[in-house]
Design the sequence.
């Protein structure tokens, strides 16, 4: 006869794995539901859930994911969901998190397409969309401020005592922005160049 | 590389700001500043901010419509 303790342990493990998968699905479903305004607008939203609420990643790891997601295919939310999912719940967790993140967008796109083709002349609908775009801008500025603070001063909030200025990062940022605005260089190329420069300077 | 990512985001922000400012609508100009302050400085929940922005836009559209119909 098999040992009941072993069976209980296996059962516990199975439940905790399923709980983690379910939590991943629900968290990324919530993120997917409110990811209005494109990939960048949800940076603070994912940050709030993944780094602060559940502490699945550190801020540095999260910033690394943003950087990696710029170099890889697919939207930021899908990359983050896959990365966090595989880390917390293996392949199943990765599938659950990714599925959760894309489900609301897919369903709402189908619903909104039908809604807009029917009511495209309604002022309320058009104005709310413009308003969401405007508030997304505020959210992206907030995300950019976090990344800039981390890159320039090594901190994620306005903590003046902890700030340690990095002049190389400031120069790289200014040069990158200039090249982007002036010559409309491909962002992937820019990331590769800044990556190589960073490697040479920091190693 | 973080500096490169920051530059790409700021580049996008400049383009987005231009589109929003073109609207010439006081609420659309106010919203990004208010949302940034609420999110970055006061750490207010992002979901709450999105919902509140949508409600404000609905109120603005309602008031504009009411004003227009009042002039007729």
Sequence:
């Amino acid at each position: 006869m098999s040992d009941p303790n072993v069976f209980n342990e296996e059962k516990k493990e199975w439940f905790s794995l399923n709980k983690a998968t379910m939590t991943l699905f629900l968290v990324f479903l919530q993120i997917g539901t409110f990811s209005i305004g494109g990939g960048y607008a949800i940076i603070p939203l994912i940050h709030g859930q993944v780094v602060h609420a559940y502490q699945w990643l550190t801020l540095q790891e999260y910033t690394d994911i943003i950087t990696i997601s710029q170099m890889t295919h697919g939207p930021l939310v899908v990359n983050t969901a896959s990365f966090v999912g595989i880390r917390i719940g293996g392949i199943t967790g990765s599938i659950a998190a990714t599925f959760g993140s894309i489900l609301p967008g897919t369903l709402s796109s189908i619903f909104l397409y039908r809604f807009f083709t029917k009511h495209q002349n309604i002022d309320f609908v058009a104005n709310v969309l413009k308003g969401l775009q405007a508030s997304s801008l505020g959210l992206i500025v907030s995300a950019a401020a976090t990344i800039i603070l981390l890159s320039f001063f090594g901190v994620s909030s306005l903590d003046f005592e902890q700030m340690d200025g990095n002049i190389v990062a400031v120069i790289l940022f200014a040069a990158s922005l200039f090249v982007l605005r002036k010559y409309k260089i491909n962002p992937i190329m820019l990331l590769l160049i800044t990556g190589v420069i960073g490697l040479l300077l920091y190693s | 590389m973080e500096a490169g990512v920051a530059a790409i985001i700021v580049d996008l922000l400049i383009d987005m700001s231009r589109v929003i400012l073109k609207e010439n609508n006081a609420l659309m100009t106010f919203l990004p500043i208010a949302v940034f302050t609420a999110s970055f400085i006061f750490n207010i929940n992002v979901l709450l901010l999105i919902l509140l922005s949508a409600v404000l836009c609905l109120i603005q559209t309602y008031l504009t419509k009411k004003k227009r119909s009042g002039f007729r």
Observations:
- Chain A touches chain B through 52 residues (CB under 8 Å).
- DSSP finds seven helices and no strands in chain A.
- The first helix of chain A runs from residue 4 to 33.
